[in-house]
Write a structure and sequence with these properties.
3-stranded antiparallel β-sheet; mainly alpha; single chain
Length: about 375
């Protein structure tokens, strides 16, 4: 229910808000530069992202009006709604570059797989909170979380979007290993994972997906085709040196050598223009935000709040790590955006809603849980 009192307002998380505003500002500054060469289209992209930021911040405010524990009641209806949206994207969605990931709403193209990540965090946190007896989960008790993850995994894999599908697996593993498991359960999970990797490579990966991994291992083998993204990104990051080439002066981005410079490779543009110093500042702010999120997890006195906060931090952390390692050539190109920095309305709105939940948990950390 709607409930804000003076004590809650006093506990408002200003630290997280300042960190998010700093990252949002850097993201918008970088987006303007990344799209600067194409003035008309670039201005439209910039204004759209600005609108998404403003809308996202309004959601943060709205989320504070509600007790986050209401998600315990609404998580499964919300989960079902996301499943319907994922199915709709497969049946009715716009096809772009051979994939069907978006639902055209007229004013906005919704990518349901983005809110599905947050929805999985909420659903797993709810399940583990309700079912935890303190004795450790057995493999049988993990069948429901596996099923919740598997539904999203299969539907997103059908789009096809292997990178996002693997993110669901990462969220499941992070949150499952965070709760108490029996040793036999850990052994089964490790053994299953070790078996699934070679089987997945042999029978489930499509040829272009295997090629991405092979290109990651040796990008110079095909520099004008599949290895082009990685090589140009590494050139952009490396050419920034200590202090960068200067704002709006990055050659890799402005001369169109760097593909996807406003989405997956947004950090490459930043590194080229601001150099090692600017990159270090950005990473310091970004990972301070993540560490502060862990602080929210530790400060919460409610177990559901702890699980939810940890899941949200894991979601943001793994996406950031995968994207940053990708643009520096340490991981294959998998199409994972850098949260709050890469262009994309669905990703940005989902991340800001997740941040709003983190701030909500911290604001209510001293409340006694009602059963």
């Amino acid at each position: 229910m709607l409930r804000i009192d003076r004590q809650l307002v006093k506990n408002f998380d200003w630290v997280m808000l300042v960190a998010v505003l700093l990252i949002a500002t850097m993201g918008l500054v970088n987006l303007y530069s990344a799209t600067y060469a194409n003035r008309a289209a670039g201005n439209l992209v910039f204004l759209r992202q600005l609108f998404f930021f403003l809308a996202g911040f309004s959601f943060i405010i709205i989320i504070h009006l509600f007790d986050y524990r209401l998600l315990l009641k609404w998580n499964y209806p919300l989960y079902a709604m996301i499943v319907v949206l994922l199915i709709a994207s497969l049946l009715l969605g716009d096809s772009i570059a051979g994939t069907q990931r978006w639902i055209n709403l007229g004013f906005f193209r919704l990518q349901p797989s983005e809110p599905a990540k947050l929805m999985l965090v909420i659903s797993l946190a709810s399940y583990y909170y309700r079912k935890d007896t303190g004795r450790g989960f057995t493999i049988r008790e993990l069948l429901v979380p596996i099923g919740l993850t598997g539904v999203f995994f299969v539907l997103v894999l059908k789009q096809p979007d292997l990178g996002t599908a693997l993110m669901f697996a990462g969220i499941f593993l992070s949150m499952t290993l965070f709760v108490k498991l029996k040793w036999s359960t850990i052994g089964i999970i490790v053994g299953t994972g070790a078996t699934a990797v070679p089987l997945g490579w042999r029978f489930f990966l499509k040829p272009y997906q295997r090629q991405r991994i092979e290109t990651f291992l040796n990008p110079e083998s095909d520099p004008t085709n599949s290895g082009y993204h990685i090589m140009q990104s590494k050139i952009a990051v490396g050419s920034g040196l200590k202090f960068g080439k200067g704002y709006l002066k990055g050659t890799q981005g402005h001369l169109h050598f760097l593909p996807e410079r406003h989405t997956d490779f947004a950090f490459s543009v930043w590194a080229e223009e601001w150099g090692f110093t600017g990159s270090l500042f950005f990473l310091a702010v970004y990972f301070f935000m993540i560490l502060w999120g862990l602080n929210v997890c530790l400060a919460s006195r409610d177990k559901f709040g702890v699980l939810l906060a940890f899941g949200i931090v894991s979601l943001i952390f793994w996406q950031a790590i995968i994207n940053l390692l990708m643009v520096m050539g340490f991981l294959p190109v998998v199409g994972i955006p850098l949260p709050m920095f890469s262009y994309g309305g669905s990703s940005l709105m989902t991340t800001l809603i997740a941040i709003g939940l983190l701030m909500n948990i911290r604001m209510r950390r001293n409340q006694v849980r009602k059963t």
